[in-house]
From TrEMBL:
Pfam families: DNA_pol_A. It comes from Pseudokineococcus marinus. Residues 1-28 are annotated as: Disordered. This is DNA-directed DNA polymerase. GO terms for molecular function: DNA binding; DNA-directed DNA polymerase activity. The keyword Kinase does not apply. InterPro entries: DNA-dir_DNA_pol_A_palm_dom, DNA/RNA_pol_sf, DNA_polymerase_A. It catalyses: DNA(n) + a 2'-deoxyribonucleoside 5'-triphosphate = DNA(n+1) + diphosphate. SUPFAM superfamilies: DNA/RNA polymerases.
Amino acid sequence: VLAALGVPDGASGRHDGGAGAPGSPVDLRSPAQVRRALHDVGLDLPDTRSWRLEGLAAEDGAHPALGALVAWRRAERFAVAHGYRWLDEAVRDGRLRAAWSASDGGAGRMTASAGLHNLPRELRVAVRAEPGRLLVRADLGQVEPRVLAVVSGDRALARAADADDLYSPVAARLGVARDVAKVAVLAAMYGQTSGAAGATLAAMERAYPVATTFLVDAARRGAAGEDVRTAGGRRVRVPAVEEVPVEAGAAAVDRERAARAARGRYARNAVVQGSAAELFKAWAATVRARLLASGDGEVVLCLHDELLLHVREDAAHDVAAGLARDLEAASARWCRAVARPPVRFTADVAVVERWSQAKG
């Protein structure tokens, strides 16, 4: 990077202190210094945000400093998050160890420290089964729209969930391509109203009125500062928004309106994502109980909608085959508990030696 910026040999933008190496004319961690260095080689940029540098670096004839700087930043983020300090704190006896939370954030998902939820693929290759064992990785498929079908009681969306790929029957019902249908479903759940996402919302409202009405009601309550609840009854707190009088000025009123809209989007998604977290825990507990009874292995990681199991090699394929049955049993039990008709849930399952070998 420094060579591309014309920095003299021997200067370094990377060091242990983190605040600028003594005698170094450019600290690559300093946006102001990087911007000045880029200006010196003929690149006058308003800022050095990564998205801007990445876009410019991808253009034909881009200055070599741009690509080098983008690559350095990626390597720097990797080193900070998963460098020697991470190894010292999180890896002991050849195992990656983390602290667990059974219900984290508004969604109440299971989370873990030590960067397990965003472990780079370059490091997942190092997560491997012990001799005589294999990893079984299972990931819930399209879980949030399927959960939406349950919690809203929308039978049309529930029928779409009968398919392995929920978005295909949704696309047929909307009369659009599958990719457009996926955008429509996600836009409804996340409250996206602009661009291509917004254009599909009206079609979703016509095709799946029960589900969209459920989401709109959650958004309305969130915008009003009211708490919402998951299907299992857990309260998700929504911060209140202080009402701003018109006399405060247009800018203040706009800020209040934006804050209410943001809380509405948060509540709209929380009722789905929080309910999905409950289903996932029911599934994880069902799988764990089966493994404890059989002695075939154990759950070693719960990651968003993914389970990672460490099992005996001779039992791996039987364990994998049982995951679909566990999901069917857990989802049926959960649907009964929340007083809703059952909806089909699916999981992608792989038996691997290393975590990196599983797709997704």
